[in-house]
Amino acid sequence: MKVRTRSSALVGTICLVASLALTTASADEPTAPHQAAKVALKEVATAQNPIAGAAGPGGTVWIAERAGTVRVLDDKGLGEPVLDISGDTTTDGERGLLGIAFDKGFAHFYISYTNLEGTSTVDEFAVRHGKIRPNTRRTVLTQTQPYSNHNGGDIRFGPDGYLYIALGDGGSGGDPHSNGQNLDTLLGKMLRIDPLGGRPYAIPRDNPFVNDPNARDEIWAYGLRNPWRFSFDARTGDLLIGDVGQSDWEEIDWAPARSRGGENYGWSQMEGTHPFRGGTEPANHVPPVHEYDRTGLGCSVTGGYVYRGKAIPDLRGQYVFSDYCDGTLRTLRMKNGKVTGESDLGVNGGEVISFVQGGDGELYVLAIGGSVSRIDPA
After folding, report:
1. pLDDT digit string (tens) for 314-368?
2. Which residues of the chain have pLDDT under 70?
3. Model-level pTM?
4. CA distance readout (Å), 230 to 16, 144, 224, 278, 364
5. Using H for helix, E for strand and C for coil, what is the string for the chain?
6. CB 52 within 8 Å of CB 100
7. Cis peptide before 200 (omega within 30 of 0)
8. Cβ distance 94 to 88 under 8 Å?
């Protein structure tokens, strides 16, 4: 997760890297300038350290607050908490309530948080008539964390109906336990599980490592440092991951919807397209589609979404992202996994900790200081 002492509650380990310098570069080819869409940020609510969100039933947007509460945003504003796990989590380091997700039919609600011992935990609740049923709570997955930073914690259902879980490399700095390249741990990985197919969950039979005795079956992709925010393109199903870097480079990784998993994004042998501390590039390294260095104000990439809403036609099809320290909203145009253009949208969201995509495809920006804003046409 990203946390920074200068913001109200987040502590600065998570911000761990890179800047949205104007000299940003695609990993594979030069980018072409193009006219940026004209947008504005409209604050629609204020929350207590909003940190994650999800599209909810009935056109609502559900907002998670880091200390452990979940509130519902509708056309009347942000309501009172519908869930409070503040007694079950801790907010030291980069911990807290880190992610929320609904399954496709809004029948189940999932939370990702660090428990009082600092263990990454994913819990499930049944949902009925748009309301959480607290007595149905069960734990789906846990992972011990050796340190209080790089917990990852984002969760999301993919187009295939399976639950994807992003976990960081375990923390400290430089991946001291080499978790990123170790297939015998869930740390530093993107996981893919079927939470309804078994107790506590089932492994999809087509996961890439199910027949490898030296690898964890849950792993979908590996070589990640702190995949703080990831998303699926609502139209194409492509996967995009904002992976927070160590010292020099922030990166955005991409996998096509047709991927069968198993991608190695390189950490900790690589930081972006660059060997990390004398590392050797793995033969199966999948380089980022975009990276940027720390020569500007940025320090920690905040992955976003490909815009598929209707309110801003000029923005449609572009990947919107930001940086926790820089706050500028930027976009990438992509074709066949290659960046063909990039833009600065000319608005700043503050300490941008997350994006939320509503059921209508419109995007919201969460700043850890409290603002919940919607990206509107200017």
Report:
1. 999 999 999 999 999 999 999 999 999 999 999 999 999 999 999 999 999 999 9
2. 1-34
3. 0.91
4. 17, 21, 12, 28, 15
5. CCCCCCCCCCCCCCCCCCCCCCCCEECCCCCECCCCCCEEEEEEEECCCEEEEEECHHHCEEEEECCCEEEEEECCEECCCCEECCCCECCCCCCCEEEEEECCCCCEEEEEEEECCCCEEEEEEEEECCEEEEEEEEEEEEECCCCCCCCCCCEEECCCCCEEEEECCCCCCCCCCCCCCCCCCCCCEEEEEECCCCCCCECCCCCCCCCCCCCCCCEEEECCCCEEEEEECCCCCCEEEEECCCCCEEEEEEECCCCCCCCECCCCCEECCEECCCCCCCCCECCCCEEEECCCCCCCEEEEEECCCCCCHHHCCCEEEEECCCCEEEEEEEECCEEEEEEEEEEECCCEEEEEECCCCCEEEEECCCEEEEEEEC
6. yes
7. yes
8. no
Is 280 buried (19+), middle (13-18) or exposed (0-12) by CB count in 10 A?
A: exposed
> Is the alpha carbon torsion for 145, 368, 112, 321 positive or negative?
negative
- Tokens 């263990």 sit on residue: 119
CB-count exposure of residue 30 (10 Å: 0-12, 13-18, 19+): exposed
Distance CA 106, CA 104 (A): 6
For 128, half-sphere exposure in the C-beta direction (CA atoms, 13 angstrom radius) is: 5
Report the alpha-carbon distance of residue 210 to residue 345 in Å, rounded: 43
Phi/psi of residue 167, nearest 5 degrees: -125, 135
Paired tokens of 62:
């559900």
Q: How many Å from the N-terminal Cα to the C-terminal Cα in the chain? A: 31
